[in-house]
Amino acid sequence: MLLTVTPNPALDKTYLVDRLIIGRVHRPLEIGEHAGGKGINVARAAVSLGLQSSATGFLAGHNGDLVRNRLEPARIEDGFVTVPGQTRLCIAIVDRDTGTQTEINEPGPTIDQAALDLFQERFSALLERSHTVALCGSLPPGVPDGFYAGLIGQAKSRGIRTVLDTSGEPLRHGLDAVPDFVKPNATEASDLLGREIETVGDAAEACRIFLERGVKTVAITLGRCGAVGADETGAWYAEAPEIQFASAVGSGDVFLAAFLVKWLQGADLSERLQFASAAGAANAMVYGAGVFETHTVQNLTSRISVTRL
Ligand SMILES: Nc1ncnc2c1ncn2[C@@H]1O[C@H](COP(=O)(O)OP(=O)(O)OP(=O)(O)O)[C@@H](O)[C@H]1O
Ligand SMILES: [Mg+2]
User: Fold this and answer.
1) Does 80 sit in the ligand 1 pocket, CB within 6 Å?
2) Neighbouring residues of 121: CB distance < 8 A, sequence distance ≥ 6
3) Are both 1-169 and 180-309 of the same fold?
4) d(Cα 95, Cα 103) in Å, to the nearest integer?
5) Domain 180-309 - what CATH class?
6) Is residue 252 classed exposed, middle or buried when 0-12, 13-18 and 19+ CB atoms within 10 A define those classes?
7) Domain boundaries, given as residue ranges, for the chain
8) Which protein residue has the closest C-alpha to ligand 1 atom 28?
């Protein structure tokens, strides 16, 4: 089983409006409500691609219940612990005229020591049934920056593959525990390494630094410019296909899920990158994070060229 960890999940609410005008009243043309959070997106995408997946983290209050209710229909096993407070509500307003998205993201409930202890117990039990653990997204208030590093250490000591997709201090600390696979986007990698990542060459150089730090496999995603990946077999660039664009929110999460699916099938790095890039693009063709047509992924895969760097 793939275990995904989402410490700070969200009830994602999306409003589609004709045109967003500050100070005006808006009546949405469409309303969407989804279980959000990066690990949940990864699990949703992995299930769509045929991988049994569970999700854990912290859920709280009424919003937490609404998130929880959406897991079973998505065939995601619910491993969340219930904590006091209220799971955050994240509102995205999509402007149909300009295609822009304006977001209002709550911080999430404050996690206390009792909740952290409860989580530790649950995480340990879930690890028993997992081959891979993916640690995804930001940390809610109260969770220390070294949280992911601790979980990586526990999983590694049991021989479980560890995947890290976060940013800032949690990424910096997490890297110290040397996860097996990291997937920053260009901004996240650039912030971490303190160097610009604008070209494929920059990304390849950044990948090399991650490998030097002991990470076995790294992929840096570059949005509509594709992705660069590296492991001990070398570095590869997968382009992104031309698509009819809707929203790329969650494309990185879907990329990650698809990459893992191929990895577990024994595919080499270039094939994993090709399939993952197709899946990230398929996600960008529809509204909703971690939502895509599986036949689109297959069609796009054959159109993506992968080159050795
Ligand atoms: N506009 C696009 N056109 C085609 N492919 C895209 C587009 N945007 C993203 N992709 C594909 O999805 C992959 C991941 O996207 P991106 O780099 O935006 O991830 P991210 O910033 O981590 O996203 P998130 O964290 O919101 O999930 C890219 O490497 C690319 O293959
Ligand atoms: Mg991302």
Assistant:
1) no
2) none
3) yes
4) 11
5) alpha beta
6) buried
7) 1-169, 180-309
8) 223
CA distances (Å), origin 101, targets 75, 108, 121, 236, 255: 29, 21, 38, 32, 21
- Which residue has tokens 């709280």? 60
Fold (topology level) of 1-169: UDP-N-acetylmuramoyl-L-alanine:D-glutamate ligase (3.40.1190)
The SS3 of residue 73 is coil
CA of 275 to the centre of ligand 1 (A): 13
CA dihedral 225, 138, 80, 68 (to 10 degrees): -60
Q: List alpha helices for the chain, DSSP H.
A: 38-48, 61-69, 113-127, 147-157, 168-176, 186-193, 200-212, 251-264, 269-284, 294-301
The residue among 173, 194, 17 whose CA lies nearest residue 100 is 17
Contacts of 16 (CB under 8 A, 6+ apart): 28, 29, 30, 31, 32, 94, 96, 287
Structure tokens at 188: 């996240």
Q: Is the CB of 253 under 6 A from ligand 1?
A: yes
Q: What six digits make up the tokens of 253?
A: 């999460």
Q: Is residue 290 lining ligand 1, measured as CB closer than 6 Å?
A: no
How far is residue 83's CA from residue 56's CA, in Å, rounded to a whole number? 12
Task: Give me the tens of pLDDT residue by residue for the chain, a chain 309 residues long.
Answer: 999 999 999 999 989 999 999 999 999 999 989 999 999 999 999 999 999 999 999 999 999 999 999 999 999 999 999 999 999 999 999 999 998 889 999 999 999 999 999 999 999 999 999 999 999 999 999 999 999 999 999 999 999 999 999 999 999 999 999 999 999 999 999 999 999 999 999 999 999 999 999 999 999 999 999 999 999 999 999 999 999 998 888 999 999 999 999 999 999 999 999 999 999 999 999 987 888 999 999 999 999 999 999
Which ligand approaches the C-alpha of residue 42 most closely? 1
